[in-house]
Amino acid sequence: MNMTYPLPDFAPEPKARIGFLLLDTDHGSDREILSLVPADVAASLVRVRNYEGRDLRACKDEIVDAARLVYPDARVDAVGYACTSGSFGELGRLLGGRGPVVTTRDAVVAALAELSVSRIALLTPYTEQLNSVIEADIGAQGIEVRSSCALAIDSNDLIARLSQRTILDIAGRMLAEDAVQAILIGCNALRVASSIRYLEETYGKPVITSNQALVWRLLQISGYSSGNRDGGALLGA
Protein backbone atom coordinates (compact mmCIF):
# COMPACT_ATOMS: atom_id res chain seq x y z
CA MET A 1 0.00 0.00 0.00
CA ASN A 2 1.40 3.38 -1.02
CA MET A 3 1.15 6.05 1.64
CA THR A 4 0.79 9.77 0.99
CA TYR A 5 3.28 12.03 2.76
CA PRO A 6 3.23 15.80 3.08
CA LEU A 7 5.64 17.76 0.92
CA PRO A 8 9.08 18.20 2.54
CA ASP A 9 9.51 21.34 4.62
CA PHE A 10 12.87 23.10 4.97
CA ALA A 11 14.41 25.55 7.41
CA PRO A 12 15.17 29.04 6.07
CA GLU A 13 18.42 29.62 4.22
CA PRO A 14 21.19 30.75 6.61
CA LYS A 15 21.59 34.52 6.64
CA ALA A 16 25.33 34.01 6.20
CA ARG A 17 27.86 31.20 5.84
CA ILE A 18 31.23 31.67 7.51
CA GLY A 19 34.18 29.40 8.20
CA PHE A 20 36.95 29.17 10.76
CA LEU A 21 40.35 27.54 10.31
CA LEU A 22 41.54 26.16 13.66
CA LEU A 23 44.95 24.74 14.51
CA ASP A 24 45.08 20.98 14.94
CA THR A 25 46.68 21.62 18.36
CA ASP A 26 43.94 24.01 19.55
CA HIS A 27 41.84 22.61 22.42
CA GLY A 28 39.54 25.55 23.07
CA SER A 29 38.44 27.54 20.01
CA ASP A 30 35.66 25.29 18.73
CA ARG A 31 33.16 25.74 21.55
CA GLU A 32 34.13 29.40 22.02
CA ILE A 33 33.49 30.27 18.40
CA LEU A 34 30.20 28.41 18.12
CA SER A 35 28.93 30.07 21.31
CA LEU A 36 29.37 33.47 19.64
CA VAL A 37 27.93 32.68 16.20
CA PRO A 38 24.20 33.57 15.83
CA ALA A 39 21.78 30.68 15.36
CA ASP A 40 20.72 31.85 11.89
CA VAL A 41 24.31 31.82 10.60
CA ALA A 42 25.97 28.64 9.32
CA ALA A 43 29.49 28.13 10.66
CA SER A 44 32.00 25.51 9.57
CA LEU A 45 35.16 24.61 11.51
CA VAL A 46 38.12 23.19 9.59
CA ARG A 47 41.42 22.10 11.15
CA VAL A 48 44.82 23.10 9.76
CA ARG A 49 48.31 22.04 10.83
CA ASN A 50 50.14 24.13 13.41
CA TYR A 51 52.55 26.58 11.79
CA GLU A 52 55.27 26.37 14.47
CA GLY A 53 58.63 25.09 13.21
CA ARG A 54 57.43 24.86 9.61
CA ASP A 55 57.99 26.75 6.37
CA LEU A 56 55.56 29.66 6.61
CA ARG A 57 54.95 29.98 2.88
CA ALA A 58 53.92 26.33 2.78
CA CYS A 59 51.66 26.97 5.79
CA LYS A 60 50.09 29.92 4.00
CA ASP A 61 49.32 27.75 0.96
CA GLU A 62 47.81 25.03 3.19
CA ILE A 63 45.60 27.59 4.94
CA VAL A 64 44.33 29.02 1.65
CA ASP A 65 43.64 25.47 0.40
CA ALA A 66 41.81 24.62 3.64
CA ALA A 67 39.55 27.65 3.16
CA ARG A 68 38.15 25.91 0.09
CA LEU A 69 36.87 23.08 2.32
CA VAL A 70 34.42 25.44 4.05
CA TYR A 71 31.04 24.53 2.51
CA PRO A 72 32.62 23.61 -0.85
CA ASP A 73 29.20 23.13 -2.46
CA ALA A 74 27.66 26.43 -1.30
CA ARG A 75 28.27 30.16 -1.18
CA VAL A 76 30.69 31.18 1.59
CA ASP A 77 30.71 34.78 2.78
CA ALA A 78 33.94 34.88 4.78
CA VAL A 79 36.63 32.62 6.27
CA GLY A 80 38.88 33.39 9.24
CA TYR A 81 42.20 32.02 10.51
CA ALA A 82 41.63 31.39 14.22
CA CYS A 83 45.17 31.68 15.53
CA THR A 84 46.31 34.86 17.25
CA SER A 85 49.99 34.03 17.67
CA GLY A 86 50.27 32.97 14.02
CA SER A 87 48.46 36.10 12.85
CA PHE A 88 50.89 38.51 14.50
CA GLY A 89 54.08 37.90 12.56
CA GLU A 90 55.33 36.75 9.19
CA LEU A 91 52.54 34.22 8.59
CA GLY A 92 49.96 36.90 9.29
CA ARG A 93 51.66 39.21 6.81
CA LEU A 94 51.60 36.47 4.17
CA LEU A 95 47.88 35.92 4.77
CA GLY A 96 46.87 39.52 5.44
CA GLY A 97 45.43 42.18 3.21
CA ARG A 98 42.62 41.35 0.81
CA GLY A 99 43.27 37.62 0.50
CA PRO A 100 40.65 34.88 0.87
CA VAL A 101 41.31 34.40 4.60
CA VAL A 102 40.81 37.00 7.36
CA THR A 103 43.42 36.69 10.12
CA THR A 104 42.66 37.11 13.79
CA ARG A 105 45.19 39.95 13.81
CA ASP A 106 43.31 41.86 11.12
CA ALA A 107 40.02 41.25 12.95
CA VAL A 108 41.45 42.53 16.24
CA VAL A 109 42.83 45.70 14.63
CA ALA A 110 39.48 46.34 12.94
CA ALA A 111 37.63 45.75 16.23
CA LEU A 112 39.83 48.21 18.13
CA ALA A 113 39.16 50.82 15.44
CA GLU A 114 35.42 50.09 15.55
CA LEU A 115 35.34 50.71 19.30
CA SER A 116 37.46 53.89 18.98
CA VAL A 117 39.86 52.97 21.78
CA SER A 118 43.48 54.07 21.83
CA ARG A 119 44.71 52.92 25.27
CA ILE A 120 44.28 49.27 26.16
CA ALA A 121 45.40 46.48 28.45
CA LEU A 122 46.71 43.26 26.91
CA LEU A 123 46.22 39.85 28.53
CA THR A 124 47.49 36.66 26.88
CA PRO A 125 48.77 33.19 27.82
CA TYR A 126 51.87 33.90 25.70
CA THR A 127 55.45 34.89 26.53
CA GLU A 128 56.59 38.46 27.10
CA GLN A 129 58.39 38.25 23.76
CA LEU A 130 55.21 37.47 21.83
CA ASN A 131 53.28 40.11 23.76
CA SER A 132 55.92 42.61 22.65
CA VAL A 133 55.32 41.63 19.02
CA ILE A 134 51.58 42.21 19.45
CA GLU A 135 52.19 45.52 21.23
CA ALA A 136 54.45 46.76 18.43
CA ASP A 137 51.98 45.73 15.74
CA ILE A 138 48.91 47.39 17.22
CA GLY A 139 51.07 50.28 18.36
CA ALA A 140 51.78 50.99 14.70
CA GLN A 141 48.00 51.36 14.31
CA GLY A 142 47.89 54.07 16.98
CA ILE A 143 46.88 51.80 19.87
CA GLU A 144 48.93 52.17 23.05
CA VAL A 145 49.23 49.20 25.40
CA ARG A 146 49.21 50.73 28.89
CA SER A 147 49.26 47.43 30.78
CA SER A 148 50.43 43.99 29.66
CA CYS A 149 50.22 40.53 31.22
CA ALA A 150 51.86 37.46 29.63
CA LEU A 151 51.06 34.26 31.53
CA ALA A 152 53.72 32.20 29.67
CA ILE A 153 51.65 29.00 29.52
CA ASP A 154 53.41 26.63 27.12
CA SER A 155 50.73 23.92 26.88
CA ASN A 156 47.79 24.15 24.46
CA ASP A 157 45.76 21.94 26.78
CA LEU A 158 46.47 24.13 29.81
CA ILE A 159 45.63 27.31 27.88
CA ALA A 160 42.19 25.89 27.09
CA ARG A 161 41.75 24.86 30.74
CA LEU A 162 42.71 28.20 32.28
CA SER A 163 39.97 28.92 34.81
CA GLN A 164 37.41 31.69 34.40
CA ARG A 165 38.28 32.79 37.92
CA THR A 166 41.87 33.46 36.88
CA ILE A 167 40.82 35.36 33.76
CA LEU A 168 38.24 37.43 35.65
CA ASP A 169 40.71 38.28 38.41
CA ILE A 170 43.53 39.42 36.12
CA ALA A 171 41.31 41.12 33.54
CA GLY A 172 39.36 42.87 36.30
CA ARG A 173 42.50 44.34 37.84
CA MET A 174 43.68 45.57 34.45
CA LEU A 175 40.31 47.11 33.56
CA ALA A 176 40.24 48.92 36.90
CA GLU A 177 43.23 51.02 35.84
CA ASP A 178 42.08 54.55 34.98
CA ALA A 179 44.43 54.88 31.99
CA VAL A 180 42.95 51.80 30.29
CA GLN A 181 39.96 52.26 27.96
CA ALA A 182 39.51 48.59 27.02
CA ILE A 183 41.17 45.19 27.30
CA LEU A 184 42.32 42.81 24.59
CA ILE A 185 42.34 39.19 25.75
CA GLY A 186 44.39 37.45 23.09
CA CYS A 187 44.55 33.77 22.09
CA ASN A 188 41.80 31.85 20.32
CA ALA A 189 42.25 28.83 22.59
CA LEU A 190 41.30 30.76 25.74
CA ARG A 191 37.75 30.07 26.90
CA VAL A 192 36.65 33.56 27.83
CA ALA A 193 33.46 34.25 25.84
CA SER A 194 31.20 33.64 28.84
CA SER A 195 33.03 36.36 30.81
CA ILE A 196 32.80 39.19 28.26
CA ARG A 197 29.44 40.57 29.31
CA TYR A 198 30.21 40.34 33.04
CA LEU A 199 33.51 42.21 32.67
CA GLU A 200 31.96 44.94 30.54
CA GLU A 201 29.02 45.47 32.88
CA THR A 202 31.25 45.45 35.96
CA TYR A 203 33.94 47.84 34.72
CA GLY A 204 32.07 49.80 32.06
CA LYS A 205 34.77 49.25 29.44
CA PRO A 206 34.85 47.20 26.22
CA VAL A 207 36.36 43.72 26.20
CA ILE A 208 37.85 42.41 22.97
CA THR A 209 38.79 38.74 22.63
CA SER A 210 40.39 36.94 19.71
CA ASN A 211 37.39 34.77 18.81
CA GLN A 212 34.85 37.52 19.45
CA ALA A 213 36.75 39.89 17.13
CA LEU A 214 37.07 37.23 14.44
CA VAL A 215 33.37 36.31 14.57
CA TRP A 216 32.43 40.00 14.45
CA ARG A 217 34.68 40.71 11.47
CA LEU A 218 33.41 37.74 9.46
CA LEU A 219 29.80 38.71 10.18
CA GLN A 220 30.59 42.29 9.19
CA ILE A 221 32.08 41.15 5.88
CA SER A 222 28.98 38.99 5.37
CA GLY A 223 26.71 41.99 5.89
CA TYR A 224 25.16 40.46 9.00
CA SER A 225 24.45 42.36 12.23
CA SER A 226 24.54 40.06 15.25
CA GLY A 227 22.99 41.89 18.17
CA ASN A 228 24.43 39.28 20.57
CA ARG A 229 24.62 41.06 23.94
CA ASP A 230 26.61 38.22 25.48
CA GLY A 231 29.30 39.00 22.91
CA GLY A 232 29.91 42.41 24.44
CA ALA A 233 29.83 45.90 22.96
CA LEU A 234 31.48 44.68 19.77
CA LEU A 235 28.95 41.97 18.87
CA GLY A 236 26.01 43.61 20.61
CA ALA A 237 25.87 46.67 18.36
CATH class: Alpha Beta
Report the span from N to C terminus.
56 Å
Name the shape in a single word.
Answer: globular
* N-to-C SSE string, H for helix and E for strand: EHEHEHHEHEHEHHEHEHH
Low-confidence stretches: none
Specify the number of helices.
Answer: 11
Percentage of residues assigned to helices: 40-55%
* Biggest β-sheet description: 4 strands, parallel
Strand order of the largest sheet: 2-1-3-4
**Architecture (CATH level 2) name:** 3-Layer(aba) Sandwich
Short description:
With 237 residues, the chain is α/β, with parallel strands linked by helices. Helix 9 links the parallel strand 7 (182-185) and strand 8 (207-209). The chain has helices at 29-36, 56-67, 84-87, 90-95, 104-114, 128-139, 156-160, 164-175, 196-203, 210-222, 232-236; strands at 16-23, 41-48, 78-82, 102-103, 119-124, 144-150, 182-185, 207-209.
Verbal overview:
The chain is α/β, with parallel strands linked by helices. It has one domain (16-236): 3-Layer(aba) Sandwich (Rossmann fold). 41% of the residues lie in helices and 18% in strands. It contains 11 helices and 8 strands. The chain has helices spanning 29-36, 56-67, 84-87, 90-95, 104-114, 128-139, 156-160, 164-175, 196-203, 210-222, 232-236, and strands at residues 16-23, 41-48, 78-82, 102-103, 119-124, 144-150, 182-185, 207-209. The strands form 2 sheets. Strands 2-1-3-4 form a 4-stranded parallel beta sheet, sandwiched between helices. A 4-stranded parallel beta sheet has the order 6-5-7-8, with helices on both faces. α6 links the parallel β5 and β6 (144-150). α5 packs across α10 (210-222). The longest helix is centred in the last third of the chain and has 13 residues, at 210-222. The chain is globular.
